[in-house]
Amino acid sequence: MNYISTRGAGIGERHTFSDILLGGLAKDGGLYLPAEYPRVSADELARWRALPYADLAFEILSKFSDDIAPDDLRALTRRTYRADVYCNVRADEDASAITPLKTLGVEGGAPLSLLALSNGPTLAFKDMAMQLLGNLFEYALAKEGRTLNILGATSGDTGSAAEYAMRGKSGIRVFMLSPHRKMSAFQTAQMYSLREPNIFNLAIEGVFDDCQDIVKAVSNDHAFKARQRIGTVNSINWARVVAQVVYYFKGYFAATRSNDERVSFTVPSGNFGNVCAGHIARMMGLPIEKLVVATNENDVLDEFFRTGAYRVRGAAQTYHTSSPSMDISKASNFERFVFDLLGRDPARVLQLFRDVEEKGGFDLAASGDFARVREFGFVSGRSTHDDRIAAISDVFARYGVMIDTHTADGLKVAREHLQAGVPMIVLETAQPIKFGESIREALGRDPERPAAFEGLEALPQRFEVLPSDAERVKAFIATHTGL
Ligand SMILES: *Cc1c(COP(=O)(O)O)cnc(C)c1O
Fold first, then answer.
1. 260 and 111 in one domain?
2. Does the N terminus or the C terminus of the chain have fewer Cβ atoms within 10 A?
């Protein structure tokens, strides 16, 4: 499998899965994609239906990473997708499914269900890919005799998923910046209670944007970055995207009886990483009818899929909402889909994303390209705070199921795209305990708390408070790497 950049650099060069695993953007600023998507045969699809999650992951990942020895890859997927890691299931769910499908009911003639992706250590779907990444990184670094220092900024979900994936891994340290005293008590406790010596929580005296600016400043110091072997695990990482392809297959098998049926998926979206994986599953031949992109008030993606105009927002137009993990102003994985939409023409992708930098966006309405969006199965919708509060209380009243605010956005939008006879699977991206305030607003009661999280907030916490100053962060990193 060879990988190419969406902007065309390195055409004719060879990039394997391992080559791009530890990197970020391609050198021309584009994103990596396979030179062509592997197709799944009818025989394979039939055989995969009965596989446990870890072995299904092996089958799918091996099509994208033929440079990793099959025995090694199988060991990695079996180590990652274990019932005792994805153990935070509700009483009526089966942890061995890893991503259990929860049937709600039939609405508008469509069987409606939730695919539970948030049973991992941090109770959000990011664990699905990040746990694999931790094991892949450790494997790749050991092979090359290298070490890696991961630097990141978080306002919640990503940082904790990264820390729980990398804790105790040899050859890896994590330096995670978060805004001091600005995260919820639950999220703070989740990250700061980790005791592994390779995890460093840096509480920055500032807001999330300050943390992000520091990460950018440190990354732009190329000499420092090289000397300190700094890397990232952000949402454009290809291995994260491809790991997410697996649960679209798993969800399809759980919602159907035969491979002649089609299903639709609704995906609560921010950076377009999750639904990009759905797009790839569909390109591989999984019978997906629609991919429904659900946004919150930050509706840059909904606007594109309705009108063809992609207009990124400035900080002042990026709203803080009650589904905060979808509060994005530009969708970092979107370029991967645009590349396919434009018939894989890197020169046009380069031009369009230059327009994003220079003019704040582009509009495909006038060209014939936008019409093809529907051929790729994409539709969309948006949800507001009132919509998600209504969805949480409706689903609880009707089905006795408590959902979080992001999943509620998905459910609200899914209901606008139901088709009789086509199962609709809403991806459940987090558990309600992470967003207790909205649950209390919707239901007048506290969210359910998985047993493993009893007393979390009372555990001792480990973190270092630093001023919002890139030089101080650099000094901290250098002292603790000894490089
Ligand atoms: C990250 C996240 C999303 C958005 O996923 P993208 O891949 O960025 O589109 C949705 N819900 C939750 C709970 C998340 O943590």
1. yes
2. C
H/E segment holding residue 272: none
Catalytic residue check, 126: yes
Cα–Cα–Cα angle for 354, 360, 362, rounded to 5 degrees = 70
Q: Is the CB of 321 under 6 A from ligand 1?
A: no
Residues 357 and 377 in one domain: yes
Considering only CA atoms, which of 196, 234, 233, 230 is closest in space to residue 478? 230
pTM of the model: 0.96
222 and 245 belong to one structural domain: no
Q: Which of 126, 250, 290, 330 is catalytic?
A: 126
Considering the domain architecture, whether residues 290 and 404 belong to the same structural domain is answered as yes
Query: At a CB cut-off of 8 Å and minimum separation 6, what does 464 contact?
Result: 200, 201, 202, 203, 476
> What CATH number should be reported for the domain holding residue 89?
3.40.50.1100
Residues 6+ apart with CB under 8 A from 3: 15, 16, 17, 19, 20, 32, 33, 34, 35, 238
Return the pLDDT at 472. 97
Q: Do residues 356 and 263 share a domain?
A: yes
**pLDDT per residue as tens digits for the range 190-206:** 999 999 999 999 999 98
Binning pLDDT at 50, 70 and 90, where does residue 366 land? confident
Q: Is the dihedral of CA 246, 113, 299, 121 positive or negative?
A: negative
Ligand 1 touching residue 266 (CB < 6 A): no
| pLDDT surpasses 90 at 390 | yes
Same domain? For 266 and 406 the reply is yes
Same domain, 274 and 309: yes
Range of the domain at 475: 147-228+455-479
Statement to judge: residues 263 and 369 lie in one domain:
yes
Closest ligand 1 atom, CA of 274? Answer: 7
Residue 345 confidence (pLDDT) above 90: yes
Residue 156 near ligand 1, beta carbon < 6 Å:
no
